[in-house]
Design a protein that fits this description.
- Helix 3 runs antiparallel to helix 9 (146-169) and helix 4 (61-75) crosses helix 9.
- The protein has helices at 14-27, 32-37, 41-55, 61-75, 78-91, 96-104, 112-126, 133-141, 146-169.
- The protein is mainly alpha-helical and 184 residues long.
- Residues 41-105 form the Carboxymuconolactone decarboxylase-like domain.
- It holds the Pfam family CMD.
C-alpha cells in the first residue's frame, strides 16, 4: 500500500492534471510513479522534462536503459526495474542476458561497453560523484567521452528522483508492468 497519495486524472492537483491525462492517453494507463509524482506538479514536470532531455542525450537508447536499470536495481526500486525492463525488452529488443545482468548487477559478458557503463553508474551512485581517476579512465577507455560522463550523471539524477519517490511512497507495480518486475 503506497504511503503517498496515488493520483488519477480526477484527483491530481490542478497543475498536474494535464500531464497525468497526457500520460494516460499515451500509455492507456497511469503508471503509479506518475500518480505519486502528481502530488508535486513540479516534481512531475521535472521528471517529464528531464526524461525528454535524457532521451536525446549523447548516449544510445540502449545505453540510457543500461543506466536506468542499473540505477533502479542498485537503489532497490522494483517499480523502476520493472518499467525499464519493459522498455529494454519490448521497445528496444535488448538481449535478455544483458537485461538480466543489469537487473541482478552481475557482469555483462556479451557487451564490455555496457559493463563499463553499468560499473561507472554504480560508482557514481556509491561515491556520490566522487569517482576515482581510475574509474573515470576505465569508463573513457571503454569508448566514452566527457559529454557521455555528464549524460550518465543526468541519467543518475533522473533515476534518483524516480527511485527515491517510489521508495518513500512504497509504490506498487502496476499490473501492466508486473511481468517485468523482480519476481518474474
Amino acid at each position: 500500500m503506497p504511503r503517498l497519495a496515488l493520483h488519477t486524472v480526477d484527483t491530481a492537483p490542478e497543475k498536474a492534471k494535464e500531464r497525468v491525462e497526457a500520460v494516460q492517453k499515451a500509455n492507456g494507463f497511469i503508471p503509479n510513479l506518475i500518480g505519486v509524482l502528481a502530488n508535486s506538479p513540479q516534481a512531475l514536470e521535472m521528471y517529464q522534462e528531464v526524461s525528454k532531455l535524457n532521451s536525446k542525450n549523447s548516449l544510445t537508447a540502449e545505453e540510457i536503459e543500461v543506466i536506468q536499470i542499473t540505477a533502479a536495481a542498485h537503489n532497490g526500486c522494483d517499480f523502476c526495474v520493472a518499467g525499464h525492463t519493459k522498455i529494454a525488452e519490448v521497445r528496444l529488443k535488448m538481449s535478455p542476458a544483458v537485461v538480466e545482468a543489469l537487473r541482478t548487477r552481475t557482469g555483462i559478458d556479451e557487451n564490455a561497453k555496457y559493463q563499463a557503463l553499468a560499473q561507472f553508474t554504480m560508482a557514481l551512485i556509491d561515491k556520490r560523484g566522487q569517482v576515482s581517476d581510475e574509474e573515470l579512465e576505465a569508463f573513457k577507455s571503454a569508448g566514452y567521452n566527457d559529454q557521455n560522463v555528464l549524460d550518465v550523471i543526468m541519467g543518475v539524477a533522473l533515476s534518483t528522483l524516480c527511485n527515491y519517490a517510489n521508495t518513500v511512497a512504497k509504490t506498487d507495480i502496476n499490473p501492466e508492468l508486473t511481468a517485468f518486475g523482480p519476481n518474474r
